[in-house]
Specification:
Order of helices and strands: HHHHHHHHHHH
Oligomer: single chain
Number of helices: 11
Largest sheet: none
Shape: elongated
Distance between the termini: 36 Å
Strand content: under 5%
Structural class: mainly alpha
Radius of gyration: 19 Å
Number of strands: 0
Amino acid sequence: MKHSDLLNPGELAAKTALPEGTVTSLLQGGQAPPDTVNERVRTRIKALADAYLARTGKPMSDLAGSISRQLGVSAFWARQVCTGEKVPSVELLHGLVGFFKVEGGEAFFTAEAPEALNRALLPLLAELEPPRGPEAAPEPLTAAWAGHDDVRGIALRRARDLPPERWHVLNATLEALLDLDDSEEDQ
């Protein structure tokens, strides 16, 4: 993957089931629009359903039927969940995690936008780490976070070919991630 593709809002939106405008705003250091956990669940399931339909070319009735059979619910209910009209129970949300094969479990659907974007960016930051020799054991990313300035420095040095506006976005994103981690530690 080219460094200039790392912060593609469209790709990050697809990975997180967040609206592309929200991803762009967060990458530029802005805020996500306020929402409730129910709104997050409904919109992310709808985003996954829409992506599934676009990818497969199947009609909604096929998707609803598949979910109905796999989760043991009515096709009518499955359709309402996929269109964002209904919020599933925790048990059925767990089933949707398996159906859509999302990483992060139920938190994929319930996490606030900055946390969801953070989860998608962490593997990208790991790609920016300098290559290690075969004898060196890879350092866990969480250990690298202990030296915030080191992580930011590594990421920015490895991203030399990014255009200036992407440098600013990457730096702002790293700062936002670090602030998010710091605020979680304070709780």
